Structure formats: C-alpha cells, structure tokens
Amino acid sequence: MSESYSTVNPCNMCMPMGTVLAFKGIEGCMPLFHGSQGCATYMRLYLAHHFREPVDIGSSALSEKGTVYGGAANLKKGIKNLIAGYRPKAIGIATTCLAETIGDDIVQIIREFRIEEPLASRLPIIPVSTPSYSGSHEEGYARALLALVEALAKKGEPNNKVNLVIGSVLSPADVRYLKDMLNDWGCSDEFILFPDISETLDAPLVEEMPTIPEGGTPLRDVADTANSRETLTIGGRFQKDFAGAFLEETYGVKSSLLPLPIGLEHTDLFVSRMEELTGRRLPGKYEAERGRLLDTLADVHNYLDGVRVAVFGDSDIVVELTRLLTEVGAVPAVVATGYSSPGFKAEIRANSADPIILCGADFTDIHDQVCKGRVDLLLGTSNGKQISQKEKIPLVRVGLPNHDRVGANRQLILGYEGAGRLLDALTNALLEERSRK
Ligand code: SF4
Fold it and tell me: What's the pLDDT score for residue 3?
C-alpha cells in the first residue's frame, strides 16, 4: 500500500453519526449535536438518503463567538428549542469535532441546564463524547449504547429477562427479523431488545406524521436492563466501549458476546445460544429456512466457487460477509474496513486463505488493491460505485451507506433468510455481468 498522508473517500463515517443510529432506537429520543450546524446537516442528509426517511437531528449551531468563548449558551438554547419543538422523552447529545477541540464540558453544561430549567430536571439528557478525528461511526454507535445504559439503567427487582443488545449497525429489516424470531420463539416478553430502529428508521406513511417517529426501545426497558439475568450482545466485537460490560461490572448482569448471525455457521451459533437461553428449540419455520439456505448454497456453489470478491464496509458486517463467501467457496480477495482493529485482522486471517486485508482504509487504497487482486465482484457499501464503474466490476450493495439504490431499510442480511438473499444477489450480479460479455 502506498504511503498517504490524507484520506480520500474514507471507508467509514463520522463518529457522531453512529450515535444517531443508537439514539434513534430509543422511544421518543431526539439526537442533538453540539457543534457547528454543518455536521448535523451533513448527517441528516446522509442518513435520509440511506433510509429514505426524514432523520431529524438538533444542533447547537456553534458560531465564531461560541467557538472562542465556549458553546454553553448555544447548547442550552439548542436543548430548550428541541424540547419546545419536539417534546422528546429523552435527548442524546453527541459532541462534534469542534466542540471537542474547544474542550466544552457537556456534562457540566447539562448539569447547569437542569438547575436553570427545572421543567427539564427529570428529562433524560444523555451526553456522549464523539471526537470524530479519533474514531468512526462504529465507535460512536458503541459509545452511545454505553452512554444510554450508564445514564438510564436503574437497579430494581430482578426481571428474569435477557438483554439482547444489537451491538452493530444493522438495517430496520434486520431488527424486524430478530423481533419476529423472538415472537415466533414465544419469548419476546423474556427479552429486552435494544436499540430498536425497526420502526423509527423505516416508518409507515401516515397522514399525520408524528414529530418523532413511533417505536424504539421503551425508556423503562433500558432502565430495566440493570435487572436482567443476562446480556447477549450480537455484533460490536471489535469495539472497546461495551454496554454489556458496564451492566456486568455495575449491576452483576452476566454478559456474553456473539458475532452477528450472518451466514450459516454464525446463525447456527446464535440459534444454539438462543436455545440455551430460552430452553426451547428453534421454531419449525426457521428449521425450514435453514434447509432452504442449504439448498441455496448447493444451487449457487457452481457459480460462486472460486469467484474473487472484494468486501468493504463496517468491520462487523465485513467479517461476517467474508465468512459467508468462504461458506459458498468464493474467495475473499480484498477485505477492507475503515475501522482499525487488530482483532479484525486476526479474525479474517483465521477464516480465509491469504486475502489482502485493509484496516483504516479509504477507497483509494481499496481501488488499488482491487486492481492488484484480480477481483470479479464487489460486495459492500454504495461508496464502491466509482471502482465498480471504472473497473467494470459488478457491485452488490450491502450496509451503510447505500445512496444510489432504494431499499436499504428493507435489506435483510441476518439469519438463514438473509444469507440466502445475499447469495442470490451475488450470483445474479455475476450472471448479469457474464450475460453482457
Ligand atoms: S468529521 Fe467532525 S467536523 Fe466533520 S461532520 Fe463529523 S463531527 Fe462534523
């Protein structure tokens, strides 16, 4: 890889953006950025293009004065306006690069605000520090989950439930799939699923749009995570900040971590853990889905065996997509993520034969390696489209962002069903390309 001192078209997104995805999964929660207005505008547009939904984000709109003398007044005004305009049940405040650089103490500012505005004294206002120059949206998401349980979890009576924490950025369709699975298993009352973006980032069209989309994990359930018997986190394995560890250390709630259930092997792993936790066998509907996935693997193996693929995007998703490729006999030739983690590299090396691995990558690096790696297919975010167009290699879009196709909010990649759909998409992209030649 060439030595470069700048990042061109990074393979990750901004740290505060990750917090929005976590805060949007909490009922009635509004995100607010402490920083200049452009940060909120950029992220609102970025997420709205991906989810095809309005994604409102408040901003303290720091100006030159706030930058020089401190942004407390702006932030307090921003919180006040947000309360007046949206009547939120909670507010999640993330810092931007500017607020971090000038060193504003948002915890102290929130404390002062509560004293000055007694009406807001009981409103949960959750601060999270997200200097984007030191991390990606994946880290922002993990930090926001941690901040939520730190602020909201409260010791009470044991509830004998399991916290199912979604530790990685997934689509609303994936979260719906998990909820359906819990329902079909007959155990949805025994789990606290958190965060839940299944409705909030994929809301039905109604005549009178609510100011804050309905849905999300209820605040009382987040509070109750302290009283559960166990936390199972899926995804987020490469993150340092970890809500499950906090609940274990602070409230003695046993914590375990599993990879995202993508592909055959890791969905099997999730299912067997769920069977242990519930004491019930996988419902027949999913046994049939598993059988159909085996059938799909047999059907598409002929096409995908030996096909060289470049995979890029969020670290958790990329690791699992790489594993799915090896399950069908395809070759992960280039594996790239914008996140930097030794754990990521080790996991990829353990499961695939000598791929080019890029951590902290941008799309210039990925492009170079795609050319060197004799790649037949691209699998990743829509940011790979320039490589696809230039090199005439088909791109199957998976993950965030997907800006140039519709349906990202309905794209299912989890479970046996999601794996089958991904394999279909990969095979069809390859067949489409071959039919053109
Ligand atoms: S990288 Fe920093 S300055 Fe840029 S949008 Fe994100 S928070 Fe704002």
Answer: 56
- Cross-strand pairs, 257: 233
Are the beta carbons of 250 and 402 closer than 8 angstroms? no
Query: Domain residue spans in the chain?
Result: 15-152, 162-278, 289-436
Q: Which pair of structure tokens corresponds to residue 62?
A: 């720091």
- Tell me which architecture the domain covering 162-278 has in CATH: 3-Layer(aba) Sandwich (3.40)
Total residue count of the chain as it appears in this document: 437
Mean pLDDT of the chain, nearest integer: 95
Ligand 1 contacts CB of residue 17 (under 6 A):
no
Please check whether the domain covering 289-436 is classified as CATH 3.30.450.20.
no
Domain boundaries 15-152, corresponding CATH code: 3.40.50.1980
CA 38 from chain centre, in angstroms, equals 22
Does pTM top 0.85 for this prediction? yes
Say what the pLDDT of residue 10 is. Answer: 84
Q: State residue 51's pLDDT score.
A: 96
Order of strands across the sheet that contains 58-59: 58-59, 29-34, 90-95, 125-128
pLDDT in tens, 96-153: 999 999 999 999 999 999 999 987 889 999 999 999 888 899 999 999 999 999 999 9
**pLDDT tens-digit profile of 237-263?**
998 889 999 999 999 999 999 999 999
Cα–ligand 1 centroid distance for 13 (angstroms): 9
Kindly state if the Cβ of 20 falls inside 6 Å of ligand 1.
Answer: no
CA of 60 to the centre of ligand 1 (A): 14
Q: Which two tokens stand for residue 371?
A: 């050319």
Rg of the chain over Cα atoms, rounded to whole angstroms, equals 22
